[in-house]
Amino acid sequence: MKLLKTVSELQANLAQERKKGKSIGFVPTMGALHQGHIELIKQSAAENDISVVSIFVNPTQFNDKNDLLKYPRTLDADYKLMHATGTTLVFAPSVEEIYPEPDTRQFGFGTLETVMEGQFRPGHFNGVAQVVSRLFDIVKPDRAYFGEKDFQQLAIIRALVKQLNLNIEIIAHPIVREPDGLALSSRNTRLTSDQRKNAVIISQTLFESKAKKESLPLTEIKQEVIEKINAVPEFQVEYFDLVDRDSLQTVKDWTDSEHIVGCIAAYAGNVRLIDNISYY
Ligand code: PAF
């Protein structure tokens, strides 16, 4: 495993491998790696000859400057955690390396980006599209791996690949959870011990709601999930939306779509957590 910090070093290494006909897998991350990332990283290493992991906290996708400042940066620990995952190259560039000039590109994803996260994090997906397209252009992978926890991000990235006509296979990995059900996230480390204990309410309520889907109308389920989570001290739901899996548009009845996913964002104190569950 090699740690590279510049685009030219990375591209020189990749050019040699590509000449030998090696396939390239890519896992973009913002670091602060946890088991969820490690599963993606291992999958990429298993399915490709060469596997690249990037660690880059992308400033353009943070609409809240405070969130950017507080984002954990743990390169040494991340590097150690990747030991024995089969990763070939770790790319940890500076901001100047990724954005030698300010990125002013404006992407458009229509109604995919105006709902859910898009409503509460203006500009977020444009920033994600900027960095992911830049990283794709640098790495030129055959396959790229993303977690399903960021369900809307995954839809945006699939749309990005289509728009830019890139020959990259996007591979989704299911959410990885703590034993109590909490979806793994780099933000979990910012929870106080009480918030961490109580954070189980999010996944627990989602799982319970799935068990009730045959017996309750969708609107009642939605209401119940929000009320249960809001009843926990320090917890506040920002949105809970039940949407069609592909269009991400809100559904009002269980018969409105064949594939319905419930996506939630909730604050535990000032830590914003997201999760989702597939109903059908
Ligand atoms: O999901 C993430 O960690 C980030 O949004 C990504 C895809 C690495 C882009 O910065």
Question: Any overview of this molecule?
Answer:
Helix 8 (124-139) packs across helix 9. The strands form 2 sheets. Strands 1-4-3-2-5-6 form a 6-stranded parallel sheet, with helices on both faces. A 3-stranded antiparallel sheet has the order 7-8-9, covered by helices on one side. It contains 12 helices and 9 strands. The chain is α/β, with parallel strands linked by helices.
Features of this protein?
single chain, 280 residues, 40% helix, three-stranded antiparallel β-sheet, six-stranded parallel β-sheet, alpha/beta, 12 helices
Overall structural class, as computed from helix and strand content, comes to: alpha/beta
Low-confidence stretches: none
Please report the number of helical segments. 12
The count of strands amounts to 9
Shape: globular
Order of SSEs, N→C? EHEHEHHEHHHHEHEHHHEEE
Radius of gyration: 19 Å
* Average predicted local confidence, pLDDT: 97
Range of helix content: 25-40%
Largest sheet: 6 strands, parallel
- Strands across the major sheet, in which order? 1-4-3-2-5-6
- What hetero molecules are bound to the protein chains? pantoate
Distance from N terminus to C terminus (CA atoms, Å) equals 41 Å
Strand content: 15-25%
